[in-house]
């Protein structure tokens, strides 16, 4: 089977899993392996969509902000140096940069490791002569002596060159890591939901004397979670909060399958929908 045909079959499965009880009759007599493969592909597709529409634009925007910030806030020839535990720069003492709620102050005339009194009511970073001081929004403070840091010398132009040179390798690494972690997290959540709801469905089927096994309910669950997952993603995009909406939809699907099985038990020789061929 060609890749194009596989994708057509997959998209058909996505669509039919959202409404078609006849489709679920085939799922009930199919293999759990086919259903699991569908869930993996579905989860991976959503992950790629998220990475390409949310993570990639965010990373590129951050890169532009860093580059523009270097150009707008630093004069040509600006330099910074850490040498033998001391910080020096050719910026004027007391130079300040504002980044929304965070302030960055550069003043090498402030010596010692005592937190600057003038920065005690602000949130951000203060570069003194001997230490860098950080004050968080919750009031917590950190003091790091420059003697604990390696010697460093850099100019504005060198920083811009680093950003330009490493932009795409860094973007690629971030996208790969984001894809891996997003997929693993999403698939773990999906598996937990399917297993829990399948156990509840098995209990229901035992009460009403249905012959569906736990494995069959797993197969149904891997497909039935499609619409609830899509609902969660749509609500997330539009920042629309409706707790447990997707869980209710999931339960309704499983109930509909149970009622259909009770009214029309699946025929064991029906063909299963398998994406592996």
Q: Can you describe this structure in just a few lines?
A:
The chain has 277 residues and is an alpha+beta fold. It is built from 7 helices and 8 strands; from the N terminus they run H-H-H-E-E-E-E-E-E-E-E-H-H-H-H. A 5-stranded mixed sheet has the order 3-4-5-6-7, with no helix packed on it. Strands 2-1-8 form a 3-stranded antiparallel sheet.
Task: Describe it.
It is a single chain. The chain is of the alpha+beta class and 277 residues long. 57% of the residues lie in helices and 13% in strands. The longest helix is centred in the middle third of the chain and has 52 residues, at 156-207. Mean pLDDT is 89; it is low at 267-277.
For the biggest sheet, the summary is: 5 strands, mixed
Note the gap between the termini: 6 Å
**Portion in strands:** 5-15%
Question: Using only CA atoms, what is the Rg?
Answer: 29 Å
Which of globular, elongated, flat, extended, rod-shaped describes the shape?
elongated
Please, what is the average pLDDT?
A: 89
Coarse structural class? alpha+beta
Order of helices and strands: HHHEEEEEEEEHHHH
What's the count of strands?
8
Helix and strand layout, with pairings?
Blueprint: H1 3-16, H2 21-28, H3 32-73, E1 79-83, E2 86-89, E3 95-99, E4 102-106, E5 124-127, E6 131-135, E7 141-145, E8 152-155, H4 156-207, H5 214-224, H6 226-237, H7 245-263
Parallel strand pairs: 4-5
Antiparallel strand pairs: 1-2, 1-8, 3-4, 5-6, 6-7
Helix pairs in contact: 3-4, 3-5, 4-5, 4-7, 5-7, 6-7
